[in-house]
Amino acid sequence: MYDVIMCLTTEHNPWLVVLATLICCVGGTAVTQNFERVQRTTGIQRAGWTFLTAIAAGATVWCTHFVAMIAYEPVVPVHLSPVLTLVSLIVAIVGASLGLVISTWRATGAYPLLGGATVGAAVAAMHYTGMAAYRVDGIVQWRWSLVTASVLLGVTLAAAAFSVLCSTSIRRYRISIGTGLFVAAVASLHFTAMGALRIAPVRLSDTLVSDEGMHALGMATGLVGLLVICTAVAAALIDRQSRSAAIQRLQRMAMTDALTGLPNRLSFKAELQTRLAAAGVAGTQLAVIAIDLDRFKEINDLHGHKAGDDVLIEMARRMREALPGGTVARFGGDEFVAMMGVANHKQAIDWVARLNVSLRQPLILPDFEARMGASIGVAMFPGDADQAEDLTNNADLAMYRAKREKSPAPHFYDALLDDVIRERRELANELRQAVDSEQLDVHYQVQASVASQEVIGYEALLRWQHPQLGSIPPSEFIPLAEEHGLIVRLGEWVLWRACGDAASWSSSARVAINVSPLQLSQADLPQLIARVLAETGLPANRLEIELTESAIMSNRERALAVLRQIKAMGVGVALDDFGTGYSSLETLRVFPFDKIKLDRFFISGVAESAESIAIVRAVLALGKSLSIPVLAEGIETREQLETLRREGCDEAQGFLLGRPEPMRDGGTRRSLVIAEPSDTGEFDAEAAGSRA
Fold first, then answer.
1. Whole-structure pTM over 0.70, yes or no?
2. Mean pLDDT, to the nearest integer, of 555-567?
C-alpha cells in the first residue's frame, strides 16, 4: 500500500493534446465569428444564431476538456459516467446560451462583462461536472486554492473576451483579441483545474478501459466535436458569403442604372474624381460629354414606355461602342453623360463627332423605325474646369445651348455664351425659393366697361421682387418658369392668392387669372379650381380664367374637355390675345367662350390706322354675332378709348384706366378714374407685364 499521494497524470498522448488544442482554437474562432451574427441580428434570426453559437461554445469546451483528459495516461483503474458526461455537455450549452443572451441584451455597460462571466462560469461548471464523471479507483483530493484560481481565470478571461467582442472602440482587432481571450479562458481553466486534482491510488490493477480504447474514445470525441464546430464555422462562412454577395448586389444596384446597365450618377461622379486626379498627375486631358436624346418624349407618347425603354437600351449600346475606353453613364430619363481621355482638343472633336454620327443612325426596332439624334455638349479638363462638378455643369451648359439652338452638331463649352445660361439657371433656382420666401406678389389691373366706365373686374398679374436684383419683369421670369418646369407651381400659387384676395373684396368684381398651356394640360385642373373656390369661399361666377389659343391647340381635344368641366362649375373662360397665333374661328365655334380679349397690338394704331380700325371692327362684329363680349387690351390714350366706344367695344383694360397695383382698400374701385397724361402729353407705354 502506498503512503504517498500520486499524481493522476504522469504521461500523456501528444496527438490527443494537439487535437484538444486544435478543437479549442477552431471552436473559439467559430464562437466569436458566430457571436458577431448574434450581435447584428434581431428577433428569430438572433435566437437562431444564439442557439448555434451556444452549441459551438458547448461543444468546444466539452470536447477540449474530455480529449485533454483522455490524453493523460492514468495509473489507476478509470471509467466514465455516461450520465454525468452528458450532463456536463448540457451544462456547457445552457450556460453559454444564458451568457450570450445577457451579453447581447444591451450592447453597452456591464451586460457584456456579466454575460462573459456567465459563459466562464458555465465552462467551470462543465469542467468540474466532467471531472465528477471521470471515476477512478483512488482517494481524490483537491487543492482548493487552484480550484478557486481556475474558476477566477475562466470567469475573468471570458468576461474580458465578450467585453472586447461587444466593444465599439476596438474594431480592427476585435475578433482576434476576443478569440484569444476565449481560448485562454478555456485552456487556463482546464489546466489549472487539472493541477488542483490529486489522487492516492488504492490498487494498481488494469484500467477498465484499455489505453487503445481510451485513445480511440478521445479521437472519436475530438472528431465529433470538430464536426460540430466546423458546422458552426461553415454556417458562419455561408452567412458571410451570402451577406457579401447581397452587399455586392446592392452596391451594383446602387451604382448602376437598372435599365441600361450603365453606371449611374453616383458611380460616374466617383470615377470622374479618380480620372481627374490621374489626368492631373499625368498632364493629360479629359473630355466630359453631356448627351440629351432628341424626340425621346415623342416616342414614349406615341409607342409607349416599353418602346421608350428599348430605345434607351439601344442608344446606350451605341454610346458604349462609339466611345471605347471611355465611360458612359445614365443620369436619368434620356440624360446621359460620358467621359473620355484624349490627347488633345482635336481628338476630342473626332470622338464626339463619331458619337454624334452613331446616335443619328436610323433606329430599327421590332415595332417601329425612327431617327433619334441627340443634343451634345462637351467640356474639357483642364481648360474648361478642374473640378468634377464644374466640369459636368459646363458640359451640361454646352449641351443645353445645343438643344436651344436645335443644332445637329455638338457644342463645346464657351464661357461667354454659356455663362448666360448659367445665370438663367441660378435665377430659376432662386425663383423656386421665391414662393416660400415672400418675394412674389400679385398686382391687379382694372378691367372696366367702356360704356359706363364702371369697374367690372381685375386681372391678376404676378410680380417678383428679388432681394438683390430688385424688381424682375414678368417678361423675363415667366419664360424662365416655363423653361424649367415651374410654371404649374406658380400658376397654382397665383390661383390660391388671387381667389383668396378676391373673396375679401367688398365689391362683387370678378378676378381674371391667366392659365398657361402646361396648366391646361393637367387633367386635375378642374379639381384644383373647385378646391380653391371651396376653401377661399369665392363664388365661381367671380372667377375668370384667361388662356391663349396656342394653349388649346397643343392638345385641342383634351384642352376643350378640361375647359368644359371648368365652365360647368360656373367659372368664366376668356380667350386671350385674340388676333395673334392661330385665331381659328373653329375654336370659337366649338367652345362658347365668355369673353374675347383683343390683343394690344391691334389697339396701338386704332386711332390713326384705317386697317387697325377695320380689324377691330371685324372682331367686335364677330363677338356680337356669337354673343361673346370683347375686351380690348393696352388702352393708353383717350383717343383709343373714344374710338372703341364709338365702335361698340364692351370692355377695356390698359394704363389709361389703371396700372397694375397691389391690393389695397379691399382691392377694388367701384368707379373708374382715368389716368392723366404726363408732362409730355403721352401716357407711359411701359409694358404692363406678361401673364402669370
1. no
2. 85
